[in-house]
Amino acid sequence: MSTEPTAPTRRTELLGIAAGLFAEKGFKNTTVRDIAEASGILSGSLYHHFDSKESMVDEILSTFQEELFAAYDAVLASDVDARTKIDRAVRLSFQAIDQHPHEVAIFQNDAGYLGGFERFGYLAERNAQSREVWVSLLTEGVRSGALRHDLDIELTYRFIRDTVWVAVKWYRPGGRHSHVEIADQYLTILLDGISTDPQSPSPRERP
Amino acid sequence: MSTEPTAPTRRTELLGIAAGLFAEKGFKNTTVRDIAEASGILSGSLYHHFDSKESMVDEILSTFQEELFAAYDAVLASDVDARTKIDRAVRLSFQAIDQHPHEVAIFQNDAGYLGGFERFGYLAERNAQSREVWVSLLTEGVRSGALRHDLDIELTYRFIRDTVWVAVKWYRPGGRHSHVEIADQYLTILLDGISTDPQSPSPRERP
DNA sequence: TGGTCAACCAAACAAGTGCTTGGTAGGCTA
DNA sequence: TAGCCTACCAAGCACTTGTTTGGTTGACCA
Lengths: 207, 207
Fold this sequence. Notes:
2 copies of one chain form a homodimer.
Chain A: H1 10-25, H2 32-39, H3 53-77, H4 82-99, H5 101-114, H6 121-144, H7 153-166, H8 179-192
Helix pairs in contact in A: 1-2, 1-3, 1-5, 3-4, 3-5, 3-6, 4-5, 4-6, 4-8, 6-7
The structure holds a DNA duplex (30 and 30 nucleotides).
């Protein structure tokens, strides 16, 4: 990320406060007066720093997405087998939830609403991009024999995406489980299942 | 359900329209004028049928939850092993998404916000109740040897709950996958994993 | 000392919000 | 025919919303 050195300006501080409120109550449900009160100023004063309430989420989300997808690209480009890539991508996601819970929560809760505005078209683009990453990883895994070939790639992608990202709704940094423990447990279940016996028909076959 | 025979009254019709809008745009983000316009009447006329906008969601959610939890109770009370119960509970959930997509979506998206009002205290209660159902099922499964005993019950419960219910965000009745196919695929992955080989350490052990 | 500037205040505005009020049209029934 | 009832309209009220405007404060600097 080679933008500015990002000094901890008042602007940045206000964005952090806004992000917390957006994540907690939702974008539409958070008023500029809420943000102002939490910042110890009046609502009108926010407009000295930002054009609009929309531009606040915009800055919050776009900054985060840039960072996140740079990390995904690094995983995709790494020279390891599909299984390891999947492992890393899952861990990366839980780590993102740990380090940027507000941003992830806003994206999870309000992407649908915000996506309706032209300004936030990049949200849908990033979503499609993320899907392609996962679908290609899973396809590679099946082709290499590391993953079962009776998998429906599209459904499997959705299951993984959903489970990973919705965790932001209950995960609390510094809580009972670290994001690493959660990733461990999920990867165990995802790769090998919760069962002791393989289920009756069509068990683990090799290509 | 032994309430009233529920004739297809205008009231019921309006509730259905409201449910669709709430599910699509969120409760807070749907105005009474939206609902009225979609119904072909003026906003004030809604108050001939309902006390408030809140009482509309209330009726939508409470009716659905009653029905859903009666079904869960039946699964819990059935005389089969834990694995079969888990199978049935998962299928039941995907079926609920298929038959009541609006209600599920509203619950998923707005339970957090609505839960803040006393009136909707039952939402949190039902949530706790649902957790107990799953935790007891999983615990029984581990104890009986059907499920791996290195599972973190709490995390496993959350993973299952999240994956199942968030599916309402992309599942479309009559779409490419039936709810039965989706349940099949998810149960396959959940029980046996996506991998062909059991992962390196601590594979499938018996108690 | 005077000028500049970021940060903020105080007050308001227009649009949108949930909801209320008084009234009306038309069907059903006693 | 009279009375009642369901379903609705028309208009508005009180409040909240995002945003604008003109002015004030205090730190920094030449």
